[in-house]
């Protein structure tokens, strides 16, 4: 929370919500915000004409400065009724102007079948119990099926982007070698970024001073990986475009052409990548926990994307074109030898 700095989001692999809450209370014994509760206007309305005395209703107004949602409040009331030995007394709770059952509210009205004295006793105990209960605004559990679907969707997104890039570069440069070389460099960039995320699990205890955490692959990280693909292919296209101009009407590119193309675009690559790196570094240092994993992945991607464009994509173009040129010649020679033997 930017204003109070009292709200934090915790991601964990633990599946038991109660265990997570106990762990947080152990790690932060005196730091967690607890519920404050006050109650007033405890009154018993007499039973309506024709009803028994047991039909009398007691109402009370409950106030929670930290706000509480309906599910949590109902759970606390039921637990207190059981602890006080009152039993399963019917009750109803409502918040004035409530529009959503899951949303927390400050003021609630309790109606029950208890008398005023019992209601006051129950509310007094609940107030005491809530004083030691930390405030958890929400708790969401993502099952294995949802996580599996997210993983499959992320893989499909990456493969689809790589396939479209091969097709685009192939059509633009009229040579499949350019498209394959670009995709090999992009796969390298993504794999290095994912490897750094995995390594962070082991180095985080030693590189905490560098703000390196135990990063997990999330939707933010998937977005960063797709951004890395777009950033890296942009640099690659710039070099390939200059290489196409230098090639002219020649059938294949040569090593001197690649060397010249890289040198002519090196200053532009350094300036573009350097500016993007500085902006991402600021996000990593001061952007907060929400985008920390995204910024870390982007930092790695910018570094790998810059050198892969120069040292991986361009040499692979040269190697593939030589291989494509030698393959038909080798096939023709083999066919000629076979004909001569016949």
Could you explain the architecture of this structure?
This protein has 342 residues and is α+β, with helices and mostly antiparallel strands. The chain folds into 2 domains: 17-46 and 56-130, no CATH class; 144-330, Multidrug efflux transporter AcrB transmembrane fold (Up-down Bundle), CATH 1.20.1640. The chain has helices at residues 17-27, 70-83, 116-130, 144-173, 176-203, 219-247, 255-286, 292-341; strands at residues 38-45, 57-68, 91-94, 105-112. The radius of gyration is 33 Å and the shape is elongated. The N and C termini lie far apart (83 Å).
Oligomer: single chain
Q: What is the share of helical residues? A: 55-70%
The order of strands across the largest sheet is 1-2-4-3
CATH class term of the largest domain: Mainly Alpha
Number of E strands:
4
Average the pLDDT over all residues and give the rounded result.
79
Tally of DSSP helical segments: 8
Instruction: Provide the structure class.
Output: alpha+beta
Major sheet summary line? 4 strands, antiparallel
Q: Kindly report how far apart the N and C termini lie.
A: 83 Å
Measured on Cα atoms, how large is the radius of gyration? 33 Å
Structural domain count: 2
CATH superfamily of the largest domain: Multidrug efflux transporter AcrB transmembrane domain
Strand-residue proportion: 5-15%
Which second-level CATH architecture of the largest domain applies?
A: Up-down Bundle
Spans of at least 5 consecutive residues with low confidence: 327-336
